[in-house]
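Aim 2, interim progress: modelling of the zinc ion-bound target.
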Amino acid sequence: MTYPLGSGRPHARLGILTACVLAAGVCAGAGNVGAAPSTPVLTHEVEAVFDIDGHTVTLSDRLILPAGLDHLRLGAGLTFTRISGPGAAPLDAAAIVTRVEDVPEQGGPWQRLDVAAAGLAGGGELLIEAHGTFHAPVDQVEFSRENVGGEISATISAEGIYLSSMSGWLATADGALGTYDLRLDTPAGYETVTQGQRIEHLESGGRLRTRWRSPDPSDSLDLVANRFFVTCETIREGLESCTYLLSDDPPLRATYLERTRAYIAMYEEMIGPYPYAKFATVENWFPTGYGMPSYTLLGGQVLRLPFIPYTSFGHEIAHNWWGNSVFVDPAEGNWCEGLTTWCADYHYKELEGAPAAREYRRNLLKDYAAYVDDPAKDFPLSAFRSRHSGATRAVGYGKSMMVFHMADRLIGRERFLAALRDVAAAHRFRAAAWSDFLGAFGLGDDFAAQWLTRTGAPSLALADVRFEAGAVSFRLRQGEPLYTLAVPVRVTGPGGAETEHVVTLSGGEASFTLPVAGATRLAVDPDCHLFRRLDPAEIEPTISQVFGSDRHAFIVDAPKEPLAAAALAFARAFAESDTAVVSDGVWPADDRTAVVLNPGPALLARLTAPGLTVSGRTIFLEGRRFSLDAADLVYAAADPERPGRTALVVLCGSPERLPGLADRVSHYGKYSWLILPAGQGRPERGNWAAGASPLLAVR
Ligand SMILES: [Zn+2]
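Predicted structure of the complex, ligand included:
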């Protein structure tokens, strides 16, 4: 299984992180997430000879099929030279293989080999010999905000070899796993890398012969080869860490080797033994961000972003436990991104400290509010397969991670981690379902029903708060459908001393009294421990609220060249559509979200934000001063025409810089404002203060 990087913005293909870059959207092929608990396994013995000039691979795959398969799935790019069944009996390819035309959710045309027609309904040996020509151009591969852009499945060229499982270069069967033994023949200098362990490496006569063995079942296999600088070190007996880099880069290599060692140590302690004999960090020559069993394939640019080794790289390593070796039983939904996010992205924030962890949880709730505002976009966790939009990320990653967080709070860290270790050990190279985790946590059907099979999130309201001499009393309310919630309540007593309480709300309304003398302040779930729909007053305007909208209206006051052309280029890049239009100061009358480009002074005066003043080309922002000569400002503001909605304001110092801002901004949705230095460079960024929470009462 291939896991896209990270869990930050729902970037299209590479999923990445907090501040961006790639983000990948597709967590393994939909419908092919994992496998049922007792899963048939195909055994592959592969020989592959690569001709780089001809963009071709000549393949021989000796398969042992288990009984009961219906068909094998093979790539449309393969031409069969020989297929033979048990006892080397030749089979007529034309009679058993049919081409299946483009079925969108199955990723284009493929070839269907009928197992019964091949006389293998009861299982047995099948030899497939074929050659495939793969030469997809890689220069169109890119990432965009929500869409997979130009992703390719296979190419063989002097720049490198990339054969993803999506190309169907090796046979797969729906609902079955595979083990692999590959003998690969490449031009000398083209080092191969794939899952499992390299057990042979022999260069002679201008050719390199390598052999990889991947004895642990996986749902597919991807292969990469290039002129890599390979460095390996032993982590401990039976476990190697390697880097496959396209340049000799000792500091980069040292960083990734050090991080690999640290993450594996962290996760072995947290979850259990690392499941493979190696972990490799592999540089790709075009942009990717995938985590495969025992390696990760990262585009060169991403690999060099300074924060990647400390964020999404760890997420990809954690997938070696969750997803790659403990498979997802799709029947109850994909739990794996939520748990990987808990173990990686969120855990790193916990290590940073409580405020960072709180901010992370609050951002997840803000994302849910921004991207899943429309109930039609919501779905229960039991229906999550993979992410392909802001809404699927907010639920499939965010809500899922919060469900693990709530389980951790309910049973305590020690029991929670012990349960994770139990599930990992019991389901190693087998599928696990949500119910396996909830069973291990000791959480029953009610928890599953309200968080997994129900759509939505509870909303809380606070009423009738009375600060009395010896106690504070209050009422909590929730709407239908009702949840059973362990609601954290923080009470501030005399001298600022804070006490933490938990009250259980299961009906629509309940009264509580907490025996705190001289209380001055009461806050309900101030640290966002519950997955809930934030009240609009709890949320400051953020850029993600603008991304959460499907349609945008781009507004420029009296557009003149060259601003008009630059604004149109920005609009098209931002909307990821050629049809985006820019209007002359006209506010949208429909539900489109306003994006205002370089507003004149009168309009700007209505797009206010706390702590922001713009005077000519000078910006005063939260006590600091910036010039539009050297930087651009992008911020989220309350829509002056439509209460409760957020508009985006772009103040760009130069029309030439405007089109490029669309992509740069897309990586920083959780912030309210960005100061983007001219050229490249990481923006300064921050959030406006949220309004007074309706879940807060002060004496
Ligand atoms: Zn992931």
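The first helix runs from residue 93 to 96. The two ends are 55 Å apart (CA to CA).
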